[in-house]
Amino acid sequence: MKMKKLLLFLALVPSVCFAQDAAHKAVAEQLNPYVYKILIDDNVNATLMITPQGALLFDTGFKESVGALSETIKQITELPLKGIVNTHYHYDYVGGNAVLGKGLEIAATAFTMGKVEGEGKPNSLIPDNPMVFKGGHTAEDFVVPMKDFKIAILGDLLFADRFPYIDIENGGNALKYLDIQSELIKMLPEDMKLIGGHGRLYTMEEFKKLHEDLQATVDIINQLIMADESLENIKAARPLADYSKYDWDFVNQDKWIELVYNSIR
Length: 265
Fold this sequence. Notes:
alpha/beta; globular; single chain; disordered N terminus; four-stranded mixed sheet
């Protein structure tokens, strides 16, 4: 009787798969029987979906961490990878293509296909559709809503608990980024779970709160720009001190101010 209760308990607890090499690790969190969120090096997310025909991988992390990612995938399923989807072109999302994507179809938007060079370059075009969002994080970012599973892959249109990075040099814009988030909030059901490009799983409620806070920071920065303050003076004034919880090593308050300033100017 005790063993039956234990087995029932284990069946109800999301499984966690963990693999590491000398320098890298990949930890998988089972969201349902078919979908796993994989956190690579406590930073970048990939997503694995299991189908009867094989496994489909969304984003591949860095090339340097692909060994740990590959081992975690093997712990999850014996089925072979049947394809890869890249949400956008940044190296921490396409770096593993060259290793994991050999002989496979690798799908991406036209912009991503044009930016990735060499081995692992995507070879299958994702056509323009309502889930290809332009001019936010990069020139093109692909969102994957799995409505039957109540899960959506947002890529870097969601940085969990962080100020986002905006790739302005490659078509991104902080104001457009927030506009896209607003579109997603209207579009996605309330019970969706969200896999962003970095960090933990998000609820729609948490996504709305993050969006509201980011919009508030943009409004603060814009007011200072309208008052003809320079970028240096805005940073020196520390106007986003109340939002310091969103600081991280790549985008702190000063960097976010710079990204917003350059998006507006």
